[in-house]
Design a protein that fits this description.
463 residues; alpha/beta; Rossmann fold; UDP-N-acetylmuramoyl-L-alanine:D-glutamate ligase; Protein-Tyrosine Phosphatase, Chain A; 3 domains; nine-stranded mixed beta sheet; seven-stranded mixed beta sheet; 15 helices; 20 strands
């Protein structure tokens, strides 16, 4: 835990007492703050009270007494309309912040020089975050990994000299972190997302820009127009910018040419690393993620060879295009995190012959957008509620069966793949669906896939 000492002896209100909210309340209390917490969920309030956190309905408290109001990132700050607590905080002139803001204040107070890498973007955040943390750890550095990737940032070890922090930041968290100041900040890309919470694409982009604008080194993907303009603005403001691209040759920066990562500096360019053969970094999207990770690690002092070694040994992000087993020329891939069609596209684009396990609780739009990848699919194995609708979309274009359950789909796909003698192929779970019809979450679905694969004869597990 990181005790939040910067509010010692002062009163702080918190709304949202789920996992990260409760961790924030406990960190503030451990640092000597007087905390008052509340939540719309009575169970969360009861859990906080049982943990020793003072609770009170924030409709009926003296707001002028609070030094700050800490809001859970899942609670609306601006759109579609501010939460009622936000209105009360504004009326009282109380600063509204989040747990990432508390972290950056503690870092500045106790170890301002400890390296801090922050990562944001519409797509690829978690893979890039995990890759950076892996490179740092593999090079022998004391590395703390948290934020939006699933570990509340204030549950990490306290800042100290020589300790490296790698923090994934959602737009909601950036919006609540006005003094965010990473050593290296990454903006991977920007496409329309969360507009129900941010109102317009421009507002969404403005929030994301704050992360790199406050960075010592800004690493910016320039393959979309919003991010390219942000890179130019941030650079004009005096921040060092490293541009990355998976689509364009750059005069300065790091870009991908096929599986090669090329570093360009001062008018010259040279191969930095070759991603060919690294199963966990297949595909153009992962070339972009790797380029960003390379730029950030170099910015915080990791030497070239340690970065290359880290790329080559990256085990992958669990449940995201994760190679879990092999049998002869067949690789088994866990992409359970692909809970909609757009999320499934990167995995489908990264293999040439696919035995595709798909289905679950369908999302709006189904799999129509994946039609360009249908020629790669040798056969589809459909599960869950989406099976009939997916079958209708596949039609005559792709052979399929309605397997019903994941266990049957794995058995049938593995058996069919074993008869495939046309070269390397993948048995891939990339559902393009939510899991909730058969599993509590995508993690449980992915773990079930791993278990079913492990039970097959003759497979060599990679995890």
């Amino acid at each position: 835990m990181i005790p939040v000492t910067t509010f010692k002896g002062r009163k702080v209100a918190i709304f949202g007492l789920g996992g990260s909210g409760l961790a924030t309340a406990e960190a503030l209390a451990a640092g000597g703050a007087e905390v008052t917490g509340w939540d719309d969920n009575p169970d969360s309030v009861a859990k906080a009270a049982a943990a020793g956190i003072a609770t009170a309905d924030l409709r009926h408290v003296e707001w002028n007494a609070f030094a700050a109001f800490v809001l859970s990132p899942g609670v609306p700050l601006t759109h579609p309309k501010p939460h009622w607590t936000v209105d009360l905080a504004h009326q009282a002139g109380v600063d509204i912040i989040g747990d990432v803001e508390l972290f950056v204040r503690e870092r500045r107070a106790h170890a301002p020089d400890c390296p801090f890498i922050a990562i944001t973007g519409t797509n690829g955040k978690s893979t890039t975050t995990a890759l950076i943390a892996h490179i740092l750890k593999a090079s022998g550095r004391d590395t703390q990994l948290g934020g939006n990737i699933g570990t509340a940032v204030l549950t990490l070890d306290p800042p100290k000299a020589g300790r490296f922090y790698v923090v994934e930041c959602s737009s909601y968290q950036i919006d609540l972190a006005p003094t965010l100041d990473p050593t290296a900040g990454i903006l991977l890309n920007l496409t329309p997302d969360h507009l129900d919470r941010h109102g317009t694409m421009q507002h969404y982009a403005d929030i994301k820009e704050r992360l790199v604008a406050g960075s010592g080194t800004a690493v910016v993907g320039v393959d979309d127009s919003f991010s390219s303009l942000i890179a130019d603005r941030v650079e004009r403001a005096g921040t060092r910018v490293v541009r990355i691209s998976r689509r364009h040759v750059l005069a300065d920066g790091i870009y991908a040419e096929g599986s090669s990562l090329v570093r360009a500096q001062g008018g010259t360019s040279a191969l930095f690393a070759d991603l060919a053969g690294i199963e966990t970094l297949r595909g153009g999207h992962n070339a972009q993620n790797a380029a960003a990770a390379v730029a950030a690690c170099l910015a915080v002092g990791v030497d070239d060879q340690d970065v290359v070694n880290g790329l080559e040994s990256f085990p992958g992000l669990k449940h995201r295009m994760q190679p879990i087993a092999k049998r002869d020329e067949i690789v088994f891939v866990n992409d359970s995190k692909a809970t909609n069609a757009d999320a499934a596209a990167p995995a489908l684009s990264s293999y040439e012959r696919i035995y595709w396990i798909a289905g679950g609780l369908p999302k709006e739009g189904g799999i129509t957008s994946l039609t360009p990848f249908f020629p790669k699919i040798v056969k589809a194995y459909l599960i869950g509620e989406a099976a009939p609708a997916f079958a209708a979309t596949l039609g005559e274009a792709v052979p399929y069966e309605i397997s019903g359950t994941l266990e049957k789909a794995v058995a049938h796909a593995a058996a069919d793949a074993a008869q495939d003698h046309q070269g390397p192929a993948a048995v891939m779970l990339s559902p393009a669906c939510a899991s909730f019809d058969q599993y509590k979450n995508f993690e449980m679905r992915g773990d079930a896939f791993v278990g079913h694969v492990a039970a097959l004869e003759g497979v060599t597990m990679l995890i």
